[in-house]
Amino acid sequence: MAMIGVLAQAQESKALQVQEFTLSNGMKVWLNEDHAVPQVFGAVVVNAGAKDCPNTGIAHYFEHILFKGTDEIGTVDYSAEKPWLDSISAKYDKLASTKEEAARLNIQHDISRLSQKASEYAIPNEFNRLISRYGGSQLNAGTSYDFTFYHNKFIPQYIEQWCILNSDRLIHPVFRLFQGELETVYEEKNMYSDNLLSTAREAILAELFGTRPYAYPIIGSTENLKNPRLSEMQAFYDKYYVASNMGLVLCGDIDRASILPLLERTFGRIRQGDKPTRVTSALPDITTERTVDITLPIPLVNAEGLIFKGCTQFEPDANALKMAMQLLSNGNAGLLDSLTNEGTVMAGLAADISLNDAGICALIIIPNLLSKTAKAEAACLAQAQKIITGDFSEANLNELKAKAQRDALQSLETLESRAEQMVSVMSTGHSWQEYLQSIDNIGNVTHSDVAAAAKRYLGKPFVRFKKKYGNYDKDKVRQPDYKPVTPRHKGAESTYAQRLKEIPTPDVSPRLIDFEKDATKTDITPYCHLYTVDNPYNNLFELTLHFNTGLINDPRLDLSTMLLNTIGTDSLTRQQFGKALQRLGADIIFDVKLKEFTIKLTGTDQHFEESLQLLSQLMKSTKCSKKDLKKIRDTKKADDKSFGEDNQDVMSAALEKTLYGPGSTNLTQVSAKEAKKMGSDEMLAAFSEALTHDCLISYSGTLNHEAVLSAVKANLPCHLASKPYKEINRELQTYNEPVVYFYDMPKSRQTLFATYDKLKPMPTIGERVPLGLLNRYFGGSMSSVLFQEVREFRSMAYSTHSMTTLPSLSMAGDKPGGFITVLGTQGDKSMSAISLVDSLLHDMPVLEANFEGCRQECINSFFANYPNFREIGEAIGDRHRKGLAADNSKKWTDAYQQATIQDMTNYYRNNIQNNASHRAMIVVGNKKSLDMQQLSQYGKVVMLKKKDIKK
User: Fold this and answer.
1) Last residue of a domain, one of 121, 153, 182
2) Quick check: 70 and 176 in contact, CB under 8 A?
């Protein structure tokens, strides 16, 4: 198969071009102009991550503290605030050098007292409110081992305000409200501690890297989190947060020709500084094979990972080693895939991980249920040996080289994925051109290159990480004994904010989807509809069949999907079928959600019809062997047995049960026992039945509509769709008395807590807007009531939010909705957090400035959610299904613009404030951490068992 030429395609398409500049202060700027969607993704990249402050968590602290404002943002009087902040910083340094517990407690009380005084000048969350006011959405930050980045999407007309705000936050950040934020980081640590895979990953990296920086968790150790030094944070900022060590990425609806002067007068003001010399963290050589136990509370399944030393992304061997790993595992017909496809192992996978300073290659081996790992390991290593000895075909290699280039092109299609790739490459110190060239160079990799790379890396000793059943010990962190801050100036506005208002900005309406021009439609049958959309970026197509059925309609579809993704046809085994897909450069994925069953076919337009014929063959003549059936049953058994070890899974199931009672899909699903009695015919009968439902087919690619229509009609069983579209809905539960559902998890470090209020039907936009505002205001942003009162001021949670569940407007009628709040808190804070949320639901603070911010966020969301070209066909088709003749985004934004704070508060008073007698609560955590008698004050306590929430 011919190579695609990523570099050439990127140079041909203006929308894929990245221009690189350097400002006068040395800051890198990467600009990508693409007007396909009316959005800009902006990110500031700092080349400083966890490896630059091993085990301290300092790099991660900045991910939190850079949202607190500056000497002008977030304060009413910085000159008066600063002495208190300086005193707090000195106290933290003293705390870090103090070991005696009573003395530490006295210092912490001093910090609490000083924090109260400093908070008298703070305007909490002003930076976040300003980002929202000026078109921003999805504001966030992330810290990796190698870099930290701060990002959000925004509406193009606010680019000047975005540049001013994001440059100012970097020039003089202020570490205010730190005591509360430190406790929030503890809560984040608690959350990771309860995550099964997170603790295992930390143990693996610690074993591999020893005392080198990558050995330590990004968030830092509990001990170091207890002893932060603000002076060290300031030193870290002074060293790394300089223009010569930073970059700016702007991707989307911008004008590259005119933007540079704006960037120079905003980001060009950041001090240049000296580019710091950074530590490196190469992976030590693995000189002898060794076995290390990794603890996971997953029963029945044995598993192990073989870890080899690899190479980094831009090293000479990188492409050849990548191809070696692809030959082993590519999801279709790799050598390890063949072991999975043939039932030799439950799963065999190859993965390569590239950090900036170290590369890792891994073989993940899961033997068949209740089997030992030795035989499975030997089979997988034998497959790796084939790559080392060159026992693979030139044709196979060429197919996978083309796949790697297709994957790279696909990652550049959407604004978010393209921008994130730009951020990642920028952090390595390489140019965008070098990145594209490295992808093109995959085409030059030879058979001997791959074999040599495999021998160099996979032919060496490895560390065997072997799963052992159990749990890691969890650090003990007690609830802090300090008084929550109560800022006097919640909702106030700084003089800085007032100055920003003076910048003229054009008033722009959201871009609307044009149902007539943005996609071409044909009704193939009354219940099968084709929508095609042009692909402006590359020669890759995506064809998705969306069937109007899902797990709510037929729980068997879960098993159908598992089978269809792992079996072949009456003439091709799964391995042979995978090879046929690989030859065409195609992939097929079956998926099922609550309300939709989908079949997605992707590939190159050059082989569109051949790929479609292969899908047709699978749809019409599936064949399931006894081994295939056993694997599905074993997978189901393992999944069912492991349920109850992860608190997030338990909360999700308990919340479903609370909202939908017997209609919860966890209770209607096919159980492992039922699956054991069920044959493949019955499992696949659900698939056959799904094909009779209304079908929306969306295509995006370079072929014209008539060519796609002809191929679809010739190859797909469109005539089977005979049932009209019907909106799928579940009945929400009504509670005539307050109830508290409790699920005891003795090993959980956190308590997860949720509330549910049933809402009256809201059949119009006008009726829904007040709820949308309330949801955003109460728990939908960084300026929300929950974020400020629970996290910001009292540090009772890291993750806290509210959400709604509503039927679509087309079927709203008499269908009710639901309002839900969710948070996670340290065990010994549980009762205080539950009491606080209950009080906020009963007596919600109302601030005009916060309301204005949340209203703007609601409006911004309609700009940010404009679909990309892969989504637009489905978006139009879905609206057609629901009876819409045109995009109603303008109606929504107008309604939000006209809504008042009184509209929101009236809705709150009428539907939430006095609803405690009909409210349901869900608590998942360690019973010993809670006061069950106090909990009973919120309603009748009902103890849940596994069988109550999962079949």
Assistant:
1) 121
2) no
- Residue 483 confidence (pLDDT): 75
- Enter the DSSP assignment of 173: B
Total length of the chain = 951
Whole-number pLDDT of residue 477: 62
773: domain CATH number?
3.30.830.10
By the 8 A CB rule, do 715 and 610 touch?
A: no
- Spacing of C-alpha 225 from chain mean position: 25
**In the chain, which stretches have pLDDT less than 50?**
1-3
Please give the backbone phi and psi of residue 65, each rounded to the nearest 5 degrees, phi first. Answer: -75, -25
Residue with tokens 């072949």: 568
* Phi, psi of 306, rounded to the nearest 5 degrees: -100, 115
- Tokens representing 75 are 């304060």
- pTM for the model stands at 0.93
Report pLDDT for 374.
93
Question: Alpha carbon of 169 to those of 74, 131, 370, 424, 492: distances in Å?
Answer: 11, 11, 55, 22, 19
Residue type, 563: L
- Considering only the C-alpha atoms of the chain, give the largest distance between any 2 of them, rounded to a whole number of Å: 80
What is the residue type of 691?
A: L
How many CB atoms sit inside 10 A of residue 35's CB?
Answer: 12
**In this structure, is residue 173 part of a structural domain?**
no
pLDDT at position 1 is 44
Contact 695, 548 (CB under 8 A): yes
Question: Residue 813 sits in which domain range?
Answer: 739-949
- Note the helical H segments in 226-270: 230-240, 256-266
Can you read off the two tokens belonging to residue 721? 């769709």
pLDDT value at residue 701: 97
Mark out the alpha helices in 332-393 (DSSP H runs): 335-341, 373-388
DSSP 514-575: -TTTS-EEEEEETTEEEEEEE-SS-SEEEEEEEES--TTT-TTHHHHHHHHTT-EESSS-HH
Backbone angles phi, psi at 240, to 5 degrees: -105, -30
- Residue 321 burial by Cβ neighbours in a 10 Å radius (0-12, 13-18, 19+): buried
547 vs 595: CA distance, rounded Å:
9
Tell me the residue ranges of DSSP E strands in 559-709: 568-569, 587-592, 597-604, 622-623, 695-701
User: Residue 213 domain-assigned?
Assistant: no
Q: How far apart are CA 283 and CA 289, in angstroms?
A: 15
Q: For residue range 341-376, list pLDDT tens digits in order.
A: 988 999 999 999 999 999 999 999 999 988 889 999
Phi, psi angles (nearest 5°) of residue 752: -100, 140
- Helix, strand or coil, per DSSP, at residue 44: strand
Ranges of H-type helices in 459-556: 495-500
Taking a C-beta distance cutoff of 8 angstroms, is the pair 610, 598 a contact?
no
> How far apart, in whole angstroms, are the C-alpha atoms of residue 331 and residue 341?
10
838, 913 contact by CB (below 8 A): no
Query: What is the pLDDT at residue 7?
Result: 66
Give yes or no: residues 815 and 910 share one domain. Answer: yes
Q: Are residues 442 and 343 in the same domain?
A: yes
Residue 2, pLDDT score: 47
The dihedrals phi and psi of 503, each to the nearest 5 degrees, come to -75, 120
Residue 749 and residue 715 share a domain: no
Residues 538 and 642 occupy one common structural domain: yes
Over residues 515-538, the pLDDT tens digits come to 999 999 999 999 999 999 999 998
